Amino acid sequence: MEEKQHIGQLFDRIAGTYDGLNHGLSLNIDRLWRKRTVAAMTPAKQVLDVAVGTADLTIEMLRRGKVEQVTGLDLSRRMMAVGEEKVNRLYPGSVNFVYGNAQQMPFDDASFDAVTCAFGCRNFSDLDAGLREMYRVLKPGGQLLILEFSYPSNRFVRACYDIYFTHVLPRVGRLFSRDKTAYTYLNRSVKSFCWGESFVRHLHDAGFREESFVPLTFGIATLYTARK
Known about the structure:
The protein is an alpha/beta fold. It has one domain (2-152, 193-227): Vaccinia Virus protein VP39 (Rossmann fold, 3-Layer(aba) Sandwich), CATH 3.40.50.150. It contains 8 helices and 7 strands. Strands 3-2-1-4-5-7-6 form a 7-stranded mixed sheet, with helices on both faces. Helix 3 (56-63) links the parallel strand 1 (44-50) and strand 2. The longest helix is centred in the C-terminal third of the chain and has 23 residues, at 155-177. It starts with 6 loop residues before the first helix and ends with a strand. The relative contact order is 0.16.
């Protein structure tokens, strides 16, 4: 998918409206998904939040007291600027934002007790390379938590999902973000991405163990967990 080659620029363009649209278009269900992700997390000292974006998952981890220090990695400087402003209001000094590519992370081996990623994996131009990097920077025994969109298996839910993602979301997203491609890309990236057992196989191939997944909200999103 061509947009993945310029994913940082795409998110730079919608950074100012991202949070409002994200929560509004999901009817705030995305907040519940992040809460479920953090609830499944083992407390950790050093955490890497890949595709940190505007730092919603990072803030939830800090709010729940699950982490001591977070490093946020992203290819969108403007998304991170929004996230940094939010973090500094609530938890100053708790997060280090780093500009970088998830497929070539600027970190040493075994640097983090846990690695998280919310709605970022489907944007990797090479999913397996990104997962291998997550494995590399994770300490032995460390936990991986990935929250990602998936495709509902129930026919009725899938039909409603298709209508919303194909017709409603792109139009509303385009209206408020004034970007012609971002929310059309979201629809296509979700439909073309792997989920469930297929995604778990990628985790296994990257070296992870104890891989599991839990569908959320009729399978609209899925929480994946694993260990190094």
